[in-house]
Every structure is written in structure tokens, then in C-alpha cells.
Design a protein that fits this description.
transmembrane helix, mainly alpha, single chain, transmembrane
Length: 192
């Protein structure tokens, strides 16, 4: 009996490689990740990965961009549940609750954090700064928050990302009393 393999479209293959890249970069960062490992995870050859993206740098930017896009998707979906004329603090709280979904998508948050650490590379830094700014502007647009409210929201999100990176919150968390205390403090905060 023969099995027929379905041929992926070019876009499906690109998506597959970006997903593999997110996984690999999330675990080992930009400098330590090899395109061979990404190719193996994606089930393609390393020269094919380079042919698709041109360089490891461009693949990292694509993976970082995809992680930011995922955050924006979460915020836009939560925005759909915000009634018109909701006060900014309440709208931010709703977005913050939605953000907690990403605690179980640790690779997305790790990729986000690795983008910051790789920002000394000019091309990566430009892309990461642009996407972070887009997320900040989106949060303000969706909630009507002022700059101070948005700053508090972004700071809370960064703390949550760091806690997820340390594996003390989210799926597979290694609970600690101090992490639980921090998470409990979010319950009393109108921002997250």
C-alpha cells in the first residue's frame, strides 16, 4: 500500500519553517540557534531555509514578527468583547485577562523576549522596536488608554512574560510562593 503525501504550498512551507524557528529561537536564542536545527524541526533542508529567508537574521525577524502578530491577535479578539464606552482601565483589564492566554504559549513570549536581547543587531533592533511600538499603539487604540495607563499595562505584560520564561506561571509551571503572590497582585490591579 502506498501513501500519498500532500504537497504544501509555498506559504504553508514558510509558515512551517517560521513555527519551527519560533520553537528553536525560543529555546536557545538568536546567537546559539543553528539554521540546521530549524530545518530539521521543519522537515526541510538547511539550504532550503536560507533560500526562503535569505539569512538566519531574516528568519529571526520573521519569527519575532509572528510572535508579535500573535499578541496582536489576542488583543484584537479581546477587544471584540469590550462594550463601547468602556473606561480605559476596564478595557485594559479585559486585554490583560486575554494576555494570560499567552502564558500557556511560552514559546511566543520567549521569542518576544529574545527579540529584545538580539536588538543590538541593527536590522533585528529596527524590526523589534517597530513591532513593540505597534503593540503599544494598538493597546492605546483598542482601550483609549493614556500613555501612563499603557505604560503600566506594558510593564505588567513584560513581568508576565518574564515569569513565563522562568516557568513559574503558565503551562508546566513550577509554582513558587513569590510568583503566586505576584500573580495574586494582578487580581487587585485594574491594568492586568
Amino acid at each position: 500500500m502506498t501513501t500519498t503525501r500532500t504537497r504544501l504550498t509555498a506559504q504553508e512551507r514558510i509558515t512551517q519553517v517560521v513555527c519551527a524557528a519560533i520553537h528553536e529561537f525560543a529555546e536557545t536564542g538568536y546567537a546559539a540557534t543553528k539554521t540546521d536545527d530549524i530545518a530539521r524541526r521543519a522537515g526541510v533542508s538547511q539550504p532550503y531555509v536560507i533560500r526562503l529567508f535569505g539569512s538566519k537574521q531574516q528568519l529571526f525577524i520573521a519569527a519575532s514578527t509572528q510572535s508579535c502578530t500573535r499578541m496582536e491577535e489576542v488583543f484584537r479578539a479581546a477587544h471584540a468583547d469590550i462594550p463601547p464606552d468602556t473606561e480605559p482601565d476596564e478595557a485594559l483589564r479585559i486585554l490583560g485577562e486575554a494576555f494570560k492566554v499567552l502564558l500557556d504559549e511560552r514559546e511566543v513570549l520567549l521569542m518576544f523576549l529574545h527579540g529584545f536581547t538580539a536588538s543590538s543587531d541593527p536590522a533585528i533592533g529596527d524590526a523589534v522596536r517597530e513591532r513593540f511600538g505597534e503593540i503599544y499603539r494598538l493597546v492605546r487604540e483598542l482601550t483609549g488608554a493614556d500613555a501612563n495607563q499603557a505604560r503600566r499595562f506594558m510593564a505588567s505584560g513584560m513581568l508576565l512574560a518574564v515569569l513565563a520564561a522562568m516557568q513559574v506561571v503558565g503551562a508546566g509551571a513550577l509554582p513558587t510562593d513569590w510568583a503566586q503572590e505576584l500573580m495574586d497582585s494582578f487580581e487587585n490591579d485594574s491594568v492586568c
